[in-house]
Fold this sequence. Notes:
Number of strands: 0
Helix content: 55-70%
Shape: globular
Radius of gyration: 22 Å
Mean pLDDT: 87
Amino acid sequence: MENGTKLWVSSSPHIRSDLTTQKIMLNVLIALVPAFLVSVYVFGISALLITIICVATCVLTEYVFEYLRKKPITISDLSACVTGVLIAFNLPVKAPWWLCIIGSVFAIAIVKQLFGGIGHNFLNPALAGRAFLLASWPTRMTGINYIPVDVTTEATPLGIVKEGLDIALPSNMQMFLGFPGVYGAIGEISALALLIGGIYLIARGIISWRIPTFYLATVLVMALFFGEDPIFQLCAGGLMLGAFFMATDYVSSPTTPVGQIIFAVGCGLLTMIIRKFGGYPEGVSYSILLMNCAAPLIQKYTMPKVYGISSQKEEVAE
């Protein structure tokens, strides 16, 4: 420059944000508090113990794995804590301690760390952990294991509908609130609590509104198409938990606006197809995992074209 000073130009990104991974995960944990409080109110100390075991196991597994591989220790970013809470939220109240540990170790060590750690896993770790447990110990992850010991009913609302049992269903208001008489995985029973947490994340700019909105809208439309009660389908099972807290995972979902919509619609279609025709009463976990596998392809074909770059290879004349 003319005055003798030097102008240093750094590589991109030139616009930086103070929103760190730790802050993002802290906001997610805050958003999960309402659902956690409802779970403790409904299920008691068991919900608290399951959550503590899952979180502690996830954090310890991540620490040990990174220590043995001589990688930077990243437990302070709170991502392992979030995974632990989400695994706990997907477990039945009667889950034994060893089931909590196995699911948590699988989620962190296999699904997350073996693929390179945070930012590199192509599946949602918590959902993959739940799917692994469901495939390995189906009797421990279904049926009466979702029901507290002092309750006479033997099925969740979706289970009652799926099996055609002669048991009175909870009202839509009970399903929305999460009590009384509404049972399922410990973190999924209150649609209201999860909705509050989801709106908080959207308001804070942590997640995009597209995936939960189009996911829930697709389920609503499909419920009407199949002649099901749309309010029941929206409030039942893990739909609210999946739509706001797991389908929106940064790493395993598309980042483009159009891609997010396609991803969300696919999740909604698969959820209702599995609920209606599948072997399990719930379809949220498998629908999101299947769409996680399709996310890279969706991302590829919905990426906006770079200005000045031709989409076709130009032949160079000799």
